[in-house]
Fold this sequence. Notes:
Layout: H1 3-8, E1 25-34, H2 47-63, E2 74-77, H3 83-91, H4 97-101, E3 107-110, E4 116-120, E5 126-133, H5 137-152, E6 159-160, E7 164-165, E8 177-184, H6 186-190, H7 194-203, E9 206-209, E10 222-227, H8 235-263, H9 265-281, H10 287-302, H11 311-320, H12 323-330, H13 336-355
Antiparallel strand pairs: 1-5, 1-8, 2-3, 3-4, 4-5, 6-7, 8-10, 9-10
InterPro entries: Arg_Kinase (IPR023660), ATP-guanido_PTrfase (IPR000749), ATP-guanido_PTrfase_AS (IPR022415), ATP-guanido_PTrfase_cat (IPR022414), Gln_synth/guanido_kin_cat_dom (IPR014746)
GO molecular function: protein arginine kinase activity
Keywords: Allosteric enzyme, ATP-binding, Kinase, Nucleotide-binding, Transferase
Amino acid sequence: xxxxxxxxxxxxxxxxxxxxxxxxxxxxxVRLARNIQQYVFPIAADKESAHEVIASISSCMNEEKDAAxxxxxxxxxxxxxxPVQKRVLVEKHLxxxxxxxxxxxxxxxxxxxxxxxxxLNEEDHxxxxxxxxxxxxxxxLGKANxxxxxxxxxxxxxxxxxxxxxxxxxxxxxxxxRASIMMxxxxxxxxxxxxxxxxxxxxxxxxxxxxxxxxTEAQGNIFQISNQMTLGKSEEDIMEDLAGVVMQVxxxxxxxxxxxxxxxxxxxxxxxxxxxxxxxNCRIIQSKEAAKCLSDVRLGIDLEILPGISKTILNELMILxxxxxxxxxxxxxxxxxxxxxxxxxxxxxxxxxxxR
Length: 356
C-alpha cells in the first residue's frame, strides 16, 4: 500500500458496501479524542515533542501484532505531503481540515479499506476515527474502542477522575467521543421542512453541520448530525440520544419523499430528469451545482424514478469532483474556471461509462 493508493481512488472500499437505512444515511462515524499524559498538548508542542508522540504510537501499534487492525495500518506524515495530496485526504474524510492545514508535525495511520484512521498531533495527540456505511453507530463505536484499548495498553492517557479524558478543547473533555451521522435529506429541503427541523435538533444538544464538519455548509443536501456534549454523559447515553434523533429524521425524510411523490409527482420527475440531463450534457459546472444535481439523481435512484444508475457512481462523483481530486488527476494546480470545465468533462464521461 502507498500514498497513491489512498489518493487515487475517490471512493474508499468501505463506501462500496451498503448499510442499514442506506437510502438516507450515507455513513456513521465515531471519533475519540485522547492525549498522552507526559507530553504537552499539540497546540504547545515543538517538533521534537510531536515526533516523539508519533514514534510512541507507531511503536505500540507495531508491538501489538495480534490485533487484527494494527497490522494493516500505514502511516503518512503531513510534512511529507503536498497541499493537494492533503486536500484529497480531507475530501475523502480520512483526515480533518485541521490536520491538513494546522498540524505541521501531524500524521495519520490508516487501514486498508480506509474505515479506520488515527490522526496524530491534530488538536489532540490522538484522534481515533472509525467509519461505516449506513446507520451503524454501535459497530463503529466498538471498532473505535478496540483501537483505543490497544493504544492504552502502551501509553498513559491524560485522565481526570472527575472530568474524564482531558483534551485541548473543553467541548471534548469527558468521554472525548464525537459521533456523527451523514444524511442525505433532499425531500426535507425541497419541502422546506429542514428549516424547522435543524433548530429542533440543536435544542436537543446535537449539532447539524455540512459535509466536512464544523464551519462548512450542506452541499448536495447532505447534512452531518453529531453530539455536542461529551462531559456528564456516558458513551451509551450519547449514542442512544443520537440514534433516537436520527431515526426521527429518517422518518421525516421518508414522509417528505412520499408527500412529493403523491402531490407533486410530475414536477418531481421533471426536476430529477433535468438534473440528470445537466450532468450528462454540461460543459462547465461549478461544485455547488454539481452537488445539487448529483443529489437530485441520487433521490431519483432511491425512488426508482431514474433506473439503471448505481448509487456507487454518485458516491464516487461527489468526491471525485471536489477541487483536490480534480487537481490531483490533472497533475497541476487549476484555476476555478479550469476546475469547472474538468468537472463537467469527468461527470459526462463517467455517466457515459455507466450507461454502457
